[in-house]
Amino acid sequence: MEIYIKMVDKVNYFIRFLLAALLMIMTVLILYQVIVRFSSSYIDVVLPRWTEEIARYSMIWLVLLGASLAVRYSALIGMEAIAERLNQKAQRVLRGITLVISMAFFLIMIIYGFEMLGHVTNQLSPGAKLSMAIPYTAIPVGGLFMLINSIAVFIETLKGDLSREFFKGGE
Prior knowledge:
By secondary structure, the chain is mostly helical. It has 6 helices and no strands.
């Protein structure tokens, strides 16, 4: 169990760098769009359509991979009003039930995400001419990482460890 948790934390450490790279790509492309749009009012410049598409696809990946880290560090929005009124044991039971329901949802994301890939693989994006499989792959991959992280949280919940800090993992 400890080996699994350490492995998940190492994968999450890598995901953090991937998220930083995606955020940087998205920021540079959007900044480029803004600069070109301001300068196009003075000069006749055509804004490449692919910049907006790549920024959008980067954001899709950023959200789904970032959600997997949020699952791991319990940073997702939740209703804490009920849990705060319960004793420690009841909180663990409630958290376990919530995690099992979440894991079922993540499995559905993975299964139907791969099914959707079969429908969009041959489609190309209009601007960048990329396969639409690239943005759609984020659904099953994000679901997989969310499932992996929720299993790690479930293991820690069973052990009684309910504390997890976002900036601590990966060391």
